[in-house]
Amino acid sequence: MMQTTHKHLQIVLEVAIIAAFAMALEYIPHKTGISGVEMSYGLIPISVLALRRGVGPAMAAGLTWGLLDMLLIGIGEGSVLNVTQGFIEYPIAFTVAGLGGLFYKPFQKALADNAHAKILGWTWAAVVLGVVAKYLCHFYAGIIFWGSYAPKGMPAWIYSLAVNGGSAIATGLLGLIVLTALVTMAKHLFLPKATGRLAAN
Questions:
Q1: Domain range holding 48?
Q2: Which GO molecular function terms does the record list (predicted)?
């Protein structure tokens, strides 16, 4: 019982740390130089937690990150137009960024087996799923709520696809590069302490 309680407390602590870290990364300049296209660095720690702890903790960290981002940055910058749009683009979009945790079990098995090709495959799958899920929310919100900002004559869906698609590609490429490096050189980051027997691998 005590061991289970300790594990739950450890997971809650990791969720809080990852959410805070993801939020801190939002203060680093992340524009790519193309109008409206930016990288979301916070998806990197969320993806690490997703592969380390699974979908529940990762989505909890994403939700916390989204609420913090909305309150600390989004509202102040005018990125929250109304309750519905704010809910879609912050709590929902940031929460589903943790869906990469759906690949937690096969990833951990590949890690235990030291199957490098499978480790990379599940890592990339987790990053791509998290990025696609998050930016699909932004894409739909872009069509419904931001369409009036599209250049004259450009359909709202094309404008939203260009902006959010560009952001998704930039974020995804960065995430793939960083996660590949981490899972190759720092596997211990993906191992819960309860399974630390692999830390030496």
A1: 2-26+40-192
A2: thiamine transmembrane transporter activity
Q: Give the Cα separation of 173 and 44 in Å (integer).
A: 11
| CATH number of domain containing 70 | 1.10.1760.20
Rg of the Cα atoms in the chain: 18
- The reply to whether the predicted model has a pTM over 0.85 is yes
Phi, psi (5° rounding) for residue 28?
Answer: -85, 130
Q: What is the pLDDT of residues 113-146, one digit of tens each?
A: 999 999 999 999 999 999 999 999 999 999 999 9
**For residues 13 and 11, what is the distance between their CA atoms, to the nearest angstrom?**
5
What lies within 8 Å, CB to CB, of 21 at 6+ separation is 42, 45
User: Is the Cβ–Cβ distance between 151 and 159 less than 8 Å?
Assistant: yes
Residues constituting the chain: 201
